[in-house]
Amino acid sequence: LKAILSMDAYNRSYNQGIELTGTTFGGVTIIKDSEDLGFKLDSNGNQVLDAEGNPIRKDADIGFYAIAYEYQGEVIISYRGTDVAAGRHASTTSTIPQAMPQS
């Protein structure tokens, strides 16, 4: 499952390999992704735009993307990124147990 979620991180959001839609599959639910970080701002607090006039996402600007999933009570985080200087790609998937309920 974690290998599939790692591949899923490459196929969501900006620069995806395949356009995927939906927020649930195989009992997995997408909770949120790094798009929630917002957009790059200049020193005056205005959104920085690309050559086509579109706002530049903070995660895309640094070559990073993360997505959080919920599966059978666990939160699983998968992310991708690029070490641009070294020309390497990084991808990993981790499980974070949910906090124990307070009694």
What features would you highlight for this structure?
single chain, 103 residues, mainly beta, 2 helices, 13% helix
What is the strand and helix layout of this fold?
Elements: H1 2-10, E1 24-25, E2 28-33, H2 58-61, E3 64-71, E4 74-83, E5 88-97
Antiparallel strand pairs: 1-2, 2-3, 3-4, 4-5
Short description:
It contains two helices and five strands.
Helical coverage, percent range: 10-25%
Number of contiguous helices: 2
Order of helix and strand elements from N to C terminus:
HEEHEEE
Give the biggest sheet.
5 strands, antiparallel
Please state the CA-atom Rg, rounded to the nearest Å: 16 Å
The coarse overall form would be: elongated
User: Which structural class do the helices and strands define?
Assistant: mainly beta
The whole-number mean of residue pLDDT values reads: 80
Main sheet: strand order:
1-2-3-4-5
State the low-pLDDT regions, or none: 92-103
Distance between the termini: 32 Å
What proportion of the residues form beta strands (DSSP E)? 25-35%
Number of strands: 5
